[in-house]
Design goal:
about 375 residues, alpha/beta, D-Maltodextrin-Binding Protein, domain 2, six-stranded mixed sheet, five-stranded mixed sheet, 11 strands, about 50% helix, disordered N terminus
């Protein structure tokens, strides 16, 4: 992402927010209101993706917990704006809110992607959420949005499992296999795979499989067994590589138009905060159940072959992260600030985790045998 492109995205967002300010100056809930408050949202996911289901789950939880006083309707990606246009639409007030990931805003401020496609420094997604809530991440995110004039109130939730390296025509055996490969990813992973030699195309979820089918891509990653299966990846590829450091610790983002959010009663804001944490747990538990089922279905019904990403590729990714962090930090002081905060939290949290929690591989091998990818 060039500096000029980033500045163009920032100016466009600021212009949109300025226009929105005039339209949204009067608090919409300052006086007693007959009937429920309604909000129209959009997700960044196709209707058939489990991620859109998570967005609907969240809306239902809020609607139920407010007793119907707040009614959120969530539309799928493309209903109002393209998936990558969600931030601007919510900031302007074209939409009241949305469900997505911070990496989709990479073009506006690249440091936003550190919450979803950065190095993570050994943290898993739940640790990223811990850092966000207790280690200064939430304050830094607000600072980043302020830097681009983002008129949004953001909540992070929903820890994701490590994402596969991706789907390919043949197994990846070494780092050099990425040279010249037409590959889909998003966020800071664009820089990572570009450094590995790939020709990267950042497509939203619903456009990936058609691009693979038409030969516009040689390989692609999206997220998990359920999403990938629902989106049709096994129809265009039978090879999936598991484990990667390109998106090892991603979370979802719930986004409100800040003007509309600020006008909500304090009690309703408290319900939203509680509903977000409840939805985070619910989503992570549902993911374990659904992903593990679809992982089996992909192998037995769809005849997909899974391979573990070679250690040489993983090591190459980690080395490249060093260079990417150094370059981006030199270019963007806010990027440097977020990296320093994450790294300080990770240094103690990951050491505690590794020293305290017993490894699971030994138990899996004992109870279920040694078969693995």
């Amino acid at each position: 992402m060039t500096k000029d492109t980033q500045n163009t995205g920032r100016r466009g967002l600021l212009k949109g927010v300025a226009v929105a300010a005039g339209a949204l100056t009067a608090p919409m809930i300052a006086k007693a209101q007959a009937g429920p408050i309604t909000m129209r949202w959009q997700s960044t996911w196709p209707a058939k993706d489990i991620f859109h289901e998570y967005a609907l789950d969240y809306a239902k939880k809020v609607n139920d917990m407010t007793g119907g006083d707040l009614k959120i309707e969530v539309l799928p990606a493309g209903s109002v704006v393209p998936a990558f246009g969600l931030l601007e639409a919510v900031s302007k007030g074209t939409l009241d809110g949305g469900h997505g990931v911070l990496g989709y805003h990479y073009g506006k401020q690249n440091a936003l992607a550190l919450w979803n496609s950065g190095p993570a420094f050994g943290m898993d997604a739940n640790m990223i959420l811990a850092w966000h809530k207790f280690g200064g991440g939430a304050e830094l995110l607000a600072k980043l949005y302020a830097s681009i004039g983002g008129n949004v109130q953001s909540f992070l939730y929903g820890p994701m499992a490590t994402q596969p390296l991706g789907w390919f025509k043949k197994p990846i055996t070494k780092p050099e296999d990425f040279k010249g490969l037409k590959f889909r990813t998003n966020g800071l992973a664009i820089d990572l795979f570009t450094a590995m030699g790939a020709a990267v195309n950042a497509l939203p979820g619903g456009e990936i499989v058609p691009a693979l089918d038409r030969g516009l891509l040689d390989g692609a990653e999206f997220n998990n067994a359920s999403s990938d299966r629902l989106l049709g990846f096994p129809d265009v590829s039978k090879i999936c590589m598991l484990q990667s450091y390109h998106q090892s610790a991603e979370t979802f983002e719930i986004m409100f138009n800040k003007t509309k959010y600020d006008a909500l009663p304090a009690k309703m804001k408290a319900v939203i905060a509680g509903a977000t944490e409840a939805a985070s747990a619910d989503m992570s538990w549902k993911a374990i159940d659904r992903y593990s089922k679809d992982y089996i279905e992909l192998q037995t019904k769809d005849k997909v072959k899974f391979y573990k990403t070679p250690d040489s590729v993983l090591q190459a990714q980690l080395k490249l992260w060093d260079a990417i962090i150094e370059k981006k930090s030199a270019e963007n002081p806010l990027f440097k600030e977020v990296v320093a905060s994450q790294k300080a939290f990770a240094e103690r949290a990951v050491k505690w985790d590794q020293d305290t929690n017993v490894g699971r591989r030994m138990a899996v091998n004992h109870f279920f045998g040694t078969k693995k990818v």
